[in-house]
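OP here, attaching both records as promised.
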Amino acid sequence: MAYLYESEIEEMAIEELQALGYTYISGNDLTPDTAPLERKSFADVILRDRCLSALRRINPHLSDGAIESALKALYQRLQPIISIMLLIKLLPVQFMQRIKTVIKKLE
């Protein structure tokens, strides 16, 4: 069975988003110690100022309060996904292989 590496999936996603007109900025350019400061730590997956700017651009008719509410809702919906992604990155490879084995047995 062929497997895709995380880097391959990431590269495909980046290329697809660039084809849609998005600009790619390397994570190395968005570190907590790089100016301009866009995140306080690597745990800040959503870049707050960029997201607020995009929400305002997409929804010019909404008030600042509504935009803040939308951002809060976005955080709440993405938090479980972000937590799982961070947890997976922290799990030892052997444990992940055991999980894959269990999943295959369940299929």
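Record two, same layout:
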Amino acid sequence: MINEKVERSKMLNEQVERLKEFKKNSGWTFQKISNLIGVHSQSLINWFSGYSKPSRHVSPLVEKFLKKYSYNQAKDQKKGNFRPIPRA
């Protein structure tokens, strides 16, 4: 049980770090990112500051966002431009 909590905490910390890196590279606002994830912008600010972490039901939404937008970010960076916009 304790190991499970420790692993979950590590996973959430890693998710938040990936979000921070994405925000830094994209230049997107807290509002834009939080709208795309489906949470209030204050939640995102709280995660970034370490005040709280994504909840169990929000964590999969964060992961989905990161997979969708970080993939496009990496692809565009290889081409020499950056446009973290989903492609149809």
